[in-house]
Specification:
about 375 residues, alpha/beta, 15 helices, binds 7-deaza-7-aminomethyl-guanine, binds zinc ion
Amino acid sequence: MSRLAFTLEKESPGSKARAAHFTTAHGEVRTPVFMPVGTQATVKNMTVDGLKAVDAQVLLANTYHLLLRPGPEVFRKFGGIHRFMDWDRPVLTDSGGFQIFSLPESRVMTEAGAQFRSYVDGAVHFLSPESSIAMQRAIGSDIMMVLDQCIPSTASHAETETAMHLTHRWAVRSLEARGDSPQALFGIVQGACHRDLRQQSAEFLRALPFDGLAIGGLAVGETHEQRYEFCGLATDHLPKNLPRYLMGVGTPIDILESVHRGVDMFDCIIPTQLAQRGTAFTSHGRIHCRRGIYKFAETPLDAACPCPTCTRYSRAYLHHLTKSDEVLGWHLLSIHNLSFYTRLMAEIRASILAGDFLAYYERQRVALVREDE
Ligand code: PRF
Ligand code: ZN
């Protein structure tokens, strides 16, 4: 029995999109949902009150970063991340698998786990499926992720198969390490861009008692077409009665395409990272606030946006703040970008519940222009 009591509310005619909800120790989550990234137990340039103001339902935090600093003892002392950062809504922790494999020069991989050097002080650390779960238990997240091996999506069949089998053995060990903890645990489907391996991975993981299943190893070097194909292939082999989480995705158009292919949960640094570069999402594409053309602009970022930034401030003020590298500029843009994302998710969910997601999808697919960095 899943620890999340995942409840499907509605499936869309002509699409794999679905609306659902699940319950955690820190409240309910309504899907499809976007999770702002709070790597360091903070969403960059945001306050907890600001996150609530933009209706963030659940945050993502990173085991890897929090293990290195401040370390498990601090979380044990505080009884977990919720009291530490004063966030009383759900938190999902990523396992560290992705971060470790992004540091190829300073790690040693074995069956047991991964040895790597701390970016904080150079000390040697070891992360295993068991120690990742131990750290996630100390953090006290509502949803934990298994330690996995995320490889480039262009990896060969042989290399992918070896990594996938290791990920599967680590998934079994993670479930054992979870024991009787009330925290939920998600498995992660890998398999790069190999159809047989993606299918095998989904089938292996769905037979285990996970509370949800994630799709990993995408948005790491493949084309958009491949990403959509392998996302849809994975969801074809995942059970309907568990939440599905596409890790590290994505742009508004990627999210729309993935909801259409049956994904329920997303996380991505894009809205907060672009805010710090002075870039805002609008209903007509991206705006780069640092551009000189906004110096005298009295209009808001997006006239169609009800967020606190757009109701109070002009493009000229945001241009000035971002040109001056003022923290307030990053804060106001983050509020706007996160509100753009949560509104997109709310619209998607409403259209699924109303039974006309397909029409919404066809309209938005044209409106949401693809703009990559
Ligand atoms: N595994 C884990 N975290 C992730 C990924 C993954 O494959 C990705 C891939 N897009 C993002 N974050 N554990
Ligand atoms: Zn706004």
